[in-house]
Write a structure and sequence with these properties.
It comes from Ceratotherium simum simum. Pathway: Amino-acid biosynthesis; L-proline biosynthesis; L-glutamate 5-semialdehyde from L-glutamate: step 1/2; Amino-acid biosynthesis; L-proline biosynthesis; L-glutamate 5-semialdehyde from L-glutamate: step 2/2. Keywords: Amino-acid biosynthesis, ATP-binding, Kinase, Multifunctional enzyme, NADP, Nucleotide-binding, Oxidoreductase, Proline biosynthesis, Transferase. InterPro entries: AceGlu_kinase-like_sf, Ald_DH/histidinol_DH, Ald_DH_C, Ald_DH_N, Aldehyde_DH_dom, Asp/Glu/Uridylate_kinase, G-glutamylP_reductase_CS, G5K_ProBA. The protein is α/β, with parallel strands linked by helices and about 800 residues long. Helix content is about 35%, strand content about 15%. The strands form six sheets. An eight-stranded mixed β-sheet has the order 5-6-4-3-7-9-10-8, sandwiched between helices. Helix 7 packs parallel to helix 8 and helix 11 crosses helix 16. It starts with 19 loop residues before the first strand and ends in an 8-residue tail after the last strand.
Length: about 800
């Protein structure tokens, strides 16, 4: 084995810097030597801090979510990742980012190893520079002029380039790792080093000692002396793989070192079912042994010795040896800065190789089933869709006992883990199921002419008529927390509107969601569209679901404001319908009725404080302070055990005030309420616009003019006069149910029911019409006549 090791002069984590190190069984010719000194010193008695492995090596990880437990990791950097686009020189920005990520993981206590290409490219850059310099000097001497002729650069032999580039490449890595107080060591190997048992043991011992000393080994094939590639002898057994390139080297090292994870970075997103760039190419999220027949391999990358086929062979060999593998893109500017850490965190990046096939379909397959099932659903007659929903409503009451039993299991498992408001959301009851059934029947009744309804008809010209009709949006992804009653509501709305549906519920409601989904599919089966509604049961992270922009047309989050914010942030190219906060206000005007105020405040705040339409800020006109009305409000809140937070102006009027509010933009979701004082209805409106969330806001007054001013000027999705904020609900609006309340200003706003899940398309019916006939000298003229629209069935 040809072995060189360079170490930076930085002391790792305060340990004493050692001039050189020799591992047990390492021959004198295979010493690992630093550049600091050549004095011999044994280190076997020096204590080292070691972190125990988080898992016993033997089997690869079954799921991406387990990758965060990986202790020993090999990162393989392909030539396309390390080199520049001109193949002459290194991509310094990418290398710096990779070194930073490796350093972060190393400092977390993991054991990191790099298998890197790049010596040939680095050497090519250096040799070209030397050749140009040499030629320019000779030409100057020969011609006696400063003007140089165009110089031809000879083809450079790869081994010579590697010999010239190895030291420079390592010096670069050394300088980069030094910035993170991490030492790096270089080891050059050839295929022969793995065939000789003694050399293989020596290499193994060297790597273990380096890892023990918290040094990052940087391994590369010794391209300066590497022999031609041998005949393919791969995959003959777990101990046989020829090291022909850095892919096979990385796989061999990963298995030899009992590595938990091998990350192979290339210039493609991962493994595709056909060559990347072809029309039908799809990224394979999880690849299983035996799937090779379903993959068509393209040509190899612009640089490097291997290709995707070589990477897959190496990955499967490593997987067979107990090492998990991910192949991902290390060149994309938007993701390369965090691709390694994302993989270790279990995010859906690249292609994950797994030996464990899931029991059910993948989420991608579920998305395709929802798409095709939704299209079939949209072609049903309105009466057939309504029949499905009526049947689901009947099942909710007929199967009440089974549903409540499943819900009881969820509640028992959640006891002590969930806060009281979340437990209340999780709980189902007979009355809730009855209300759900009533709501579903309302949806069924209102869905008769939802899909395909004509909104506009225009005669463009003679025998050329245009229609605008309602159509489903496509595939909806609804993510909900602790709300199993949300599942049948949303499913009914999706069925009525002809949309395919993906549902992702919280694990705290797993038993309830499972039976409710089974009942939904039973109802869908009566017209053969069972697959239109899918429940995602895999370990898919929400963030990964939000990246499926080719399968999902709209995301609807149902849950905490934090969930909604996270989804809005994670969604990549998919619109999100919803609201991140429900900061609802009630303004009590100076002309408010004493009898009405306390009832409205109590209902808005205390009836269900965890709801998004619960009251959070009470604005009181200044003239009402120290009046019987004000005292009644405060007394009622005390009786209901509502904690009061004083706004700045309210606190200034009081000698002993409640705790001053930390922020006027707070959604409490509990029996807590902010009270603030305003001088006028205009000041109340200004306060709402500054601190509200455009959800639901209320005025309490007997002055109709003041009320109308408030209704017209408050820019929120729902604005009420003398009514509780809790009326902001699809069921209470007569929509049957809602998928959520939207504060968006595009498409749908407020409680979103059936109408909000529809979009439109244009239908044009002509008879050999062409645009040129309507030109200045054409034979036809535009008429643009409005035609009567068929009356909507309101029964």
């Amino acid at each position: 084995m040809l072995s060189q090791v360079y170490r930076s002069g930085v002391q790792p984590f305060g340990r004493r810097l050692l001039p050189w190190v020799q591992s047990p069984g390492l021959s004198r010719s295979h010493r690992v030597q630093t550049s600091a000194t050549r004095h011999v010193r044994s280190w076997s008695n020096i204590p080292f801090i070691t972190v125990p492995l988080s898992r016993t090596h033997g089997k690869s990880f079954a799921h991406r979510s387990e990758l965060k437990h990986a202790k020993r990791i090999v990162v393989k950097l392909g030539s396309a990742v390390v080199t520049r686009g001109d193949e002459c020189g290194l991509a310094l920005g990418r290398l710096a980012s990779i070194v930073e990520q490796v350093s972060v993981l190393q400092n977390q206590g993991r054991e990191m190893m790099l298998v890197t290409s790049g010596a040939v490219a680095f050497g090519k850059q250096r040799l070209r520079h030397e050749i140009l310099l040499s030629q320019s000097v000779r030409q100057a001497l020969h011609s006696g002029q400063n003007q140089l002729k165009e110089m031809a650069i000879p083809v450079l032999e790869a081994r010579a380039c590697a010999a010239a580039g190895q030291s420079g490449l390592m010096a670069l890595y050394e300088a980069m790792f030094t910035q993170y107080s991490i030492c790096a060591a270089q080891i050059l190997v050839t295929n022969l080093d793995f065939h000789d048992e003694q050399k293989r043991r020596n290499l193994n011992g060297t790597l273990h000692e380096l890892l023990r000393m918290n040094i990052v080994p940087i391994i590369n094939t010794n391209d300066a002396v590497v022999p031609p590639a041998e005949p393919n002898s791969d995959l003959q057994g777990v101990n046989v793989i020829s090291v022909k390139d850095n892919d096979s080297l990385a796989a061999r090292l990963a298995v030899e070192m009992k590595t938990d994870l091998l990350i192979v970075l290339s210039d493609v997103e991962g493994l595709f079912d056909s060559p990347p760039g072809s029309d039908d190419a799809k990224l394979i999220d999880i690849f299983y042994p035996g799937d090779q027949q379903s993959v068509t391999f393209g040509t190899k990358s612009r640089v490097g010795m291997g290709g995707m086929e070589a990477k897959v062979k190496a990955a499967l060999w490593a997987l067979q040896g107990g090492t998990s593998v991910v192949i991902a893109n290390g060149t994309h500017p938007k993701v390369s800065g965090h691709v390694i850490t994302d993989i270790v965190e279990g995010k859906k990046v690249g292609t994950f190789f797994s030996e464990v096939k899931p029991a059910g379909p993948t989420v991608e397959q579920q998305g395709e089933m929802a798409r095709s099932g939704g299209r079939m659903l949209a072609t049903l007659e309105p009466e057939q869709r309504a029949e499905i929903i009526y049947h689901l409503a009947d099942l909710l009451t007929d199967q009440r006992d089974e549903i409540l039993l499943a819900n009881k299991k969820d509640l028992e498992e959640a006891e002590g883990r969930l806060a009281a408001p979340l437990l209340k959301r999780l709980s189902l009851s007979t009355s809730k199921l009855n209300s759900l059934a009533i709501g579903l029947r309302q949806i069924a009744a209102s869905s008769q002419d939802s899909v395909g309804r004509v909104l506009r008809r225009t005669r463009i010209a003679k025998n050329l008529e245009l229609e605008q009709v309602t159509v489903p949006i496509g595939v909806l992804l609804v993510i909900f927390e602790s709300r199993p009653d949300c599942l049948p509501q949303v499913a009914a709305l999706a069925i009525a509107s002809g949309n395919g549906l993906l549902l992702k519920g919280g694990k705290e409601a797993a038993h309830s969601n499972r039976i409710l989904h089974l009942l939904t599919q039973e109802a869908l089966s009566i017209h053969g569209v069972k697959e239109a509604v899918q429940l995602v049961n895999t370990r898919e992270e929400v963030e990964d679901l939000c990246r499926l922009d080719k399968m999902i047309d709209l995301i609807i989050p149902r849950g905490s404001s934090q969930l909604v914010r996270d989804i809005q942030k994670a969604a990549k190219g998919i619109p999100v319908m919803g609201h991140s906060e429900g900061i609802c206000h009630m303004y009590v005007d100076s002309e408010a009725s004493v009898d009405k105020v306390t009832r409205l405040v109590r209902d808005s705040k205390c009836e269900y404080p965890a709801a998004c339409n619960a009251l959070e800020t009470l604005l009181i006109h200044r003239d009402l302070l120290r009046t019987p009305l004000f005292d009644q409000i405060i007394d009622m809140l005390r009786v209901e055990q509502v904690k009061i937070h004083a706004g700045p102006k309210f606190a200034s009027y009081l000698t002993f005030s409640p705790s001053e509010v930390k922020s006027l933009r707070t959604e409490y979701g509990d029996l807590e309420l902010c009270i603030e004082v305003v001088d006028s209805v205009q000041e109340a409106i200004d306060h709402i616009h500054k601190y509200g969330s455009s959800h639901t806001d209320v005025i309490v007054t007997e002055n109709e003019k003041t009320a109308e001013f408030f209704l017209q000027h408050v820019d929120s999705a729902c604005v009420f006069w003398n009514a509780s904020t809790r009326f902001s609900d699809g069921y209470r609006f007569g929509l049957g149910a809602e998928v959520g309340i939207s504060t968006s200003r595009i498409h749908a706003r407020g409680p979103v029911g059936l109408e909000g899940l529809l979009t439109t398309k244009w239908l044009l019916r002509g008879q050999d019409h062409v645009v040129s006939d309507f030109s200045e000298h054409g034979s036809l003229k535009y008429l643009h006549e409005n035609l009567p629209v068929p009356q909507r069935n309101t029964n």
